[in-house]
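Re-running the complex after MR caught last week's input typo. The corrected sequence lines follow. Everything else is unchanged.
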Amino acid sequence: MESGTAGGVAQHELRQRFRDELSSLEAHTLGALDLVTMQIDRSLEALEHQDVELAEMIVADDDRLDGRFLEVHQGILSLLALQAPVAGDLRLVAALLHTIKHIERMGDQCVNIAKLIPITGWEPPVDDELLMTILRMGRQARSEVVQCKRAFTERDVALAEDLVRQDREINRANREVFRRAIDIGDDPDTREWAMTMVMVARAYERVGDNAVDIGEQVAFVVSGLFREFSDSSHVPGSK
Amino acid sequence: MNPRDTETQTPPAELRTRDVNAPSETAMADAIASATVKGEQPPATGRTLNVDSLQAYYGDNHAVRDITLTYAANRVTAMIGPSGCGKSTVLRCLNRMHEEIPNARAEGQVMLDEIDIYDSKVDVVAVRRAIGMVFQKPNPFPTMSIFDNVAAGLRLAGIKGVDTKQRVEESLRGAGLWEEVKDRLGSPGIGLSGGQQQRLCIARTIAVKPEVILMDEPCSALDPIATLKIEELIEQLKRDYTIVIVTHNMQQAARVADTTAFFLLGDLVEHAPTGKIFSSPDDSRTEDYVSGKFG
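Corrected-run output:
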């Protein structure tokens, strides 16, 4: 006999199927962040070595993230319809819906980067300093992705809030890339490459933003309050 | 007659509605016996109930119209719908209790696998043993102990040749009640809480090893925790039995049922996987009912 019937149904075993489904949905959602880290790693390698084939793999594999989005979305709808979660469970389900959307956007940013790689041509990169800054941004974005996954898994609000600090570094690097792109040269080829790199930098910066957004969901799940950790629509110091 | 294991079936005289002494007339028991390896527990699979063109009447009132529906084996099927829609009437037709009501009758076919329970050769007592029912208000026999309440099921069905003590324990375990009552089997059944009484009734029902368990709003008299415990129990029971549950509580149907059938004014409107009924039902009447626009 299962423990559920052998000794009567213990309190913690109530709605066990619901608990299992909810934790499986959470694992399925956060597991997609591993796919994102893999895509970021590939994008960094593809950029560094001008690897167009690797870039094509990134584009093709984004289907997995899109598929994961649909599965999680369907799972959330099913859980809402059939189990009527309330309180913390409801906040978690709402957070997972937002989170999987952010993850899907992260995936799209990696695709954007991958599609820019063939444009940069078969020649070696024009400016090492610019490329190094971009690779640094990519690694920073990767670190934020890993950290937001851990923050959510462990419901660690402090770790989630720390993402803002990391994200400031990406934003700073993004501005550096922009300035450097203006400075590096006059000929059309160089300018084209520089503009492409600005777009790549922007894509990494957006990955970081999405990681911060996931961090905000962590705070919502824990506290029930939704607040933006940092609101870029306001000029610093003006509020 | 060996409906199950080494039991012999001799219905008590007061329940005999026809001459049941000729073994071949009890077709259902025969079929059950032939499906069972002698001396062993039957395989842990429930049976499918197929309803075809079921009609039910209270006198001239055609209360249930032309119902065709399959209750899949080892699944929970919920029947929902507003008061008076016919769901409880359908339930009572599934074990031939509807005809016990004065002036009530049913027509059509209800097949337990290959056997039509409405066939004139079928013993109605055997039907009600194979298709058990749990009612809305827990109804343990008030003068009996916990033990006797469970054993009563065996005695009423005339099942002999069974180790009663062992069967009672098995049934109480199967109903998730054993640990709570094992040290007071002699105390009165009505001394238990509402939720426990309902589980006692479930134990009584499964003591006779039915194929199908019918439940008529089994939790509506219970508090929320007791309700969830019964739902958890239903989740376990479906491994061995086919379960049909009538419920007013749509959230309960959503939590517990594999498929849900929506009834309205005596008609079956829609029967589909529960997820579909509660997310994107085909019929607008179903949509209106589950989203609370009427009820």
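None of the earlier attempt is carried over here. The radius of gyration of chain A is 21 Å. Chain A touches chain B at residues 1-2, 4-9, 11, 13-18, 77-78, 81-84 (CB under 8 Å).
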